[in-house]
Amino acid sequence: MKKSSMRAIHCLPLLLCLGIGQALAGTPIDLRHDATAAAHISISNIEGSVTVIGWDRPEVEVAGQLGEGAKPLAITGSNAELAVKVEPQGGSGWFNWHGDNAMAPSTLELHVPQGASLEIHVISAPLTIDGIDGGSIVVNSVSGKARINAQTPSLKIDSISGGIEQAGHAERADLQTVSGDILAPALGSEARLQTVSGHVQAAGGPWRKLTLSSVSGDVQLAGKPATDGHLGIDSMSGDVQLQLPADTSGAIHASSFSGDLRSDFGTPQKSGHGPGVSLDTRLGTGRGRIDIETFSGDLRIRRQD
Question: Reduced to 3 states, what is the DSSP secondary structure of residue 233?
Answer without folding.
Answer: strand
